[in-house]
Amino acid sequence: MRRLRAAYFVYAHLHSTLVIILPAMDSRTLRVLDYDKILARLTGFCDFSASAELALALQPTSNFEEATRLLAETAEARFLLSTHDLTIGGSHDIRPAADLAARGGVLDPLALLEIKSTLIACRDLKKSLEHAADKAPRLAQIAVGLPETFGIVDAITQVLSERGEVLDSASPKLASLRREIKVAHDRLMSRLQKYLTESANKLQEPIITQRDGRYVIPLRAEFKGSIKAIVHDQSSSGATLFIEPLPVVELNNEIRELELAERDEERRILSELSGLVGAHAVELKYGIENLAALDLAFAKAKYAEEIHASEPIFHKMDHGKTINHPPLTILHARHPLLDPSTVVPIDFDPRPGTIAVVITGPNTGGKTVSLKMVGLLVLMAQSGLHIPAQSGSELPLFESVYADIGDEQSIEQSLSTFSGHITNIIQILKKADHRSLVILDELGAGTDPQEGAALARAILANLLERGIMSLVATHYPELKTFAHSTEGVVNASLEFDIQTLRPTYKLTIGLPGRSNALLIAQRLGMDPQLVAVAKSEINPDDLRADKLLDDIRKERNRTSREREKLEKSRAKLEEKTSELEKRLDKIEDERRDVLAKARAEGELEVAVLKQNIESLKQQLKKARQPLQAIKAIEAKLESIEEKTQEPVERKSDQLSVTGGQSLKLGERVFLATLKSEGIVTALGESDAEVQIGSLRVRAKLSDLERKSGQTIMDDKPQTAVSRPSSSVATKSPGIEISLRGKLVEDGLDELEKYLEKAYSAGLPFVRIVHGKGTGKMRDAVRSALKDNPYVKSFEEAHENEGGAGVTVAKLASG
Question: Is 334 left (phi over 0), alpha (psi -120 to 50) or beta?
Answer without folding.
Answer: beta
